[in-house]
Amino acid sequence: MTDSKYFTTTKKGEIFELKAELNSDKKEKKKEAVKKVIASMTVGKDVSALFPDVVNCMQTDNLELKKLVYLYLMNYAKSQPDMAIMAVNTFVKDCEDPNPLIRALAVRTMGCIRVDKITEYLCEPLRKCLKDEDPYVRKTAAVCVAKLHDINAQLVEDQGFLDTLKDLISDSNPMVVANAVAALSEIAESHPSSNLLDLNPQSINKLLTALNECTEWGQIFILDCLANYMPKDDREAQSICERVTPRLSHANSAVVLSAVKVLMKFMEMLSKDLDYYGTLLKKLAPPLVTLLSAEPELQYVALRNINLIVQKRPEILKHEMKVFFVKYNDPIYVKLEKLDIMIRLASQANIAQVLAELKEYATEVDVDFVRKAVRAIGRCAIKVEQSAERCVSTLLDLIQTKVNYVVQEAIVVIKDIFRKYPNKYESVIATLCENLDSLDEPEARAAMIWIVGEYAERIDNADELLESFLEGFHDESTQVQLQLLTAIVKLFLKKPTETQELVQQVLSLATQDSDNPDLRDRGYIYWRLLSTDPVAAKEVVLAEKPLISEETDLIEPTLLDELICYIGTLASVYHKPPSAFVEGGRGVVHKSLPPRTASSESAESPETAPTGAPPGEQPDVIPAQGDLLGDLLNLDLGPPVSGPPLATSSVQMGAVDLLGGGLDSLIGGTNFVAPPTAAVPANLGAPIGSGLSDLFDLTSGVGTLSGSYVAPKAVWLPAMKAKGLEISGTFTRQVGSISMDLQLTNKALQVMTDFAIQFNRNRVQNMGRLARFGLAPAAPLQVHAPLSPNQTVEISLPLSTVGSVMKMEPLNNLQVAVKNNIDVFYFSTLYPLHILFVEDGKMDRQMFLATWKDIPNENEAQFQIRDCPLNAEAASSKLQSSNIFTVAKRNVEGQDMLYQSLKLTNGIWVLAELRIQPGNPSCTLSLKCRAPEVSQHVYQAYETILKN
Amino acid sequence: MIHSLFLINSSGDIFLEKHWKSVVSRSVCDYFFEAQERATEAENVPPVIPTPHHYLLSVYRHKIFFVAVIQTEVPPLFVIEFLHRVVDTFQDYFGVCSEPVIKDNVVVVYEVLEEMLDNGFPLATESNILKELIKPPTILRTVVNTITGSTNVGDQLPTGQLSVVPWRRTGVKYTNNEAYFDVIEEIDAIIDKSGSTITAEIQGVIDACVKLTGMPDLTLSFMNPRLLDDVSFHPCVRFKRWESERILSFIPPDGNFRLLSYHMLSWDVGKINPQKLPSLKGTMSLQAGASKPDENPTINLQFKIQQLAISGLKVNRLDMYGEKYKPFKGIKYMTKAGKFQVRT
């Protein structure tokens, strides 16, 4: 006799049969029928049709039957709200039952029924239960407040339940305290601004007392809550730490990790000279090591957190390297994490052991793991200088194994080692070259090509090697093609006489036969550079590269500090601040607040961010890799040039041409064939950036084709204030990149050189959260030649929004410092907010509605835009080109209403309603935003865009 | 908090779902299936999987994936610990935790899950309390219930639920009062080709089976408590007493439980004669017809040594206070191989 009998079906039709049984007179039959219904529910069958029949069974003194009916109700009440109301009376009655178990059960179930009509009836019973004499009922009621808040937040506030809940923090029963904390934390999560968990020394003391007595789960909530407290001084911090430390010996790993979080955070306040500081450090290691003997899933989360901890405080685990050694039957996700931590802990003292292990791993069977192990050897070489030689020889040993993927991975890391220790290990190049034929992965091929190009002068047959790749040029991946192009140009600049044919060949392959814009662009740039000024080409292409360091693997310190505060949370697993993937956590308002990569994430799937780079549209247009292209795009090549550019220099041509010196000096009089401009379809040229678009004479089209509105340049720094340097400029936004277009004019009598630029930082404050814009130059100011008297140069300075921030008044104020060989000059300018409107600012209709409702009315701001005689279509398309998107359009009583959305680079959404009355030149703009202080500036942006 | 739970077998069928908030469509598991497909073996499915609107946190035990769905920022360890607790509870209730057993007891399973979480918050996870609320099925009870129409749902508030000792119910009665403790040490080690030890550590536990009437208060002391410096305790252990006196003092849960676990990275093995180093030899034979293993297979070693805790840990005495009777007391030691791997 088992429950599996409940799954058997009869021929007559299951639902029909069940209905009859549910209405049976026999109690036992009824109960059996309800069990069958529940069994169907557990396998996801829809049994909602039985709702009235099941509810009829609710009035019973059989507790099991009652519970079963309640289980059913919770699942289906939402789909049958009118029927669900039938259950209310029973609930209300049960809330008065003398048995606390039944009172608690009723209030608990009622809270799970997500039907508005029922919640109204819930308030009174809930109020009573919150003050019930039995702690079991109170603790259940505390959770119920969180449930109710999830359904109807306003109701909970109006009814004063939040205050009652806060009072429960002082309850005499620790379990009630723990549940109250948990409920308050959950409510606070959806209302970050509300000051619900008002922590002060008294309440902290209560929490610490409850911590010792409540269940393990309650301890987690309390510890997480404690972590948000800011002790007033180091003594208080120490005393809290002392009371939290015993939790490190708890059997529940979540309790341990939450305790670690509190300690890691409060430790910041303790002086390192303090004896206690050292004691605490010592106490932290054993529990972290113990977490690694738990189940693999727990280990994984622990390892992700330990990864943060060893970056923040390497001293804690520096002697525990061995516990991170990989066991061959660890799950792959554990292996990979252990490997990462091993590298972080690698030091001169233990490198021999680590390398021996890594070499062992490199011979395992799991391909992913082996690759990562090989890569780890490279990282060790870069991290521990003394070990570099040993690492290189280990890698060479691995190459000798001839295992294909091992060889390829090794070559990729050796390339990095070359970049870290130039002119040290080049003797191994010969060995690498032997394996050229076996490389079939793009990354390895590209690395090998890079090596050949970089060291072309030392490889006798470099030209042959590169030529061999050229045969199948069009079958190669972009990465390889780009690398091959660069490598051959390098080769040519190093050995011009023998390789002229080769370089011609690759340039024409890249520019004429390829439909990849990146490749063509790079090809043209090289071609033009070589044909105009080979000396400059040499300086650019063969420029000294910055050394790489292990820092590139480390989490940026401010982010690390933030993540330390999130130990034990999902943020710590993904190594991203929660703002990057969850906000609020309330079903509808899922928005992304990505502070770094704002322009490339879409609002519909913010949670995809943690898994890796979101699929952006940009990579096709603005290549991320390649050390050259980025630099070159910053160059403004000056006024439009029509026809094939020739090796002529003219003063107005701007920076590049001023270098002088013709091609002849390099290749002895042979003339270069200039790149054929006709090969490029005009529409592809547009989004590339100012430098290249000028080249193809598209200047006039750029603004309207793909970019936001660009104001005419204005004088920002008059010459008389800056010892003869005049700067005028404007801001542009094109396909996701913001730039500052500057025009520098030398009105002094002496030559100006050594230009550099820096911004003061900017931000706005918003609802307790920092709304950051943090505009910063994304590249140094590139003025490639001295600026002679009376000469003007145009520069487009790419900007990023990841700079550090400081409060500015007004918030779009930008303070700039420009330096040259004469002095440092300061000026400030206001940037138009619309350069911060990102391309994916179109909100989905449903989301728009929900968000509009969700933003409190006091955040709404209304503005009049006068003298703007545009119709709805014209306005909409004009705004769209500046990334203000029309979500919906309505016509109400002869007025056109445009509902629009836009998103700022820091992820803040602004919703707008634009009312246009035909015939009336004024329109009304209503803006709603969680950060109301931006409204004024958004309005100004609207006005600027609509009127130009 | 925990939103929903799906139970999935290794062939990818969802055979049970439970929702603690609103119902989440089972299509959310498609993301899990994708990950499952990508991972070559079930053990390699990552425990945290992000989806556009939820996170899936899972544990894999007894060839079943227990997949929790969460929607907001929740400590993942909390979720994973809880899932393991669910598995332990099922095992405790039904003896084994397997798909057929869960299906056979689906209503009890559902009732138990409902008691374990409320709105995603853990409510009762101690098996003592759960068993008072939902009685585990026994053949006798099933028969009796069928005849008398009584239920397996308790109608009284469990006694331990809110007491200071939530892990123990009141009114426990035994005719034979006994308390047994097993000190079990597992050695995890990696030995390299040449026979030298790369890492070695001891994972030790003291498991207890305590069947004592009433509210006994026990103390357990060790001959050499200094050995224990990295320990995790059952919540019943009074931490202060341990800190000050190195004595384990506790009111035990009723039945089987893990009193403490500990961890050692180095220990004293006593004297070894350097002239005559101890050595172990073994041969590995392949079954006829079996495919040739990888070139350098790693060998997993299994062994057991009865009546010895390799670390040298020894219990001194066990005393009982608060009750008058004389219990039977017993202690057993055992050392065995944990993840003991020899590279070749």
Q: What is the overall pLDDT average of chain B?
A: 87
In terms of quaternary structure, the protein is heterodimer
- By DSSP, the count of extended strands of chain A is 15
Distance N terminus to C terminus of chain A? 81 Å
Could you give the distance between the termini of chain B? 47 Å
Overall pLDDT score of chain A: 79
Helix content of chain B: 10-25%
What is the CA-based Rg of chain B, rounded?
24 Å
Give the DSSP E fraction of chain A (strand runs of 2 or more residues): 5-15%
Can you describe this structure in just a few lines?
The complex is a heterodimer of chains A (948) and B (344). Chain A is α+β, with helices and mostly antiparallel strands.
Detailed description of the structure:
Chain A is an alpha+beta fold and 948 residues long. Helices cover 47% and strands 10% of the residues of chain A. Chain A contains 41 helices and 15 strands. In chain A, helix 7 packs parallel to helix 9, helix 12 crosses helix 13 and helix 28 runs antiparallel to helix 29. With 344 residues, chain B is of the alpha+beta class. In chain B, the strands form four sheets. In chain B, strands 8, 9, 11, 13, 14, 15 and 17 form a seven-stranded mixed β-sheet that branches. A five-stranded antiparallel β-sheet of chain B has the order 2-1-5-4-3. In chain B, strands 12-10-16 form a three-stranded antiparallel β-sheet. In chain B, strand 3 and strand 4 form a beta hairpin. Chain B is globular, with a radius of gyration of 24 Å.
Overview features:
heterodimer; A: 948 residues; alpha+beta; 5-stranded antiparallel sheet; 41 helices; 15 strands; 47% helix; globular; B: 344 residues; 7-stranded mixed sheet; 7 helices; 20% helix
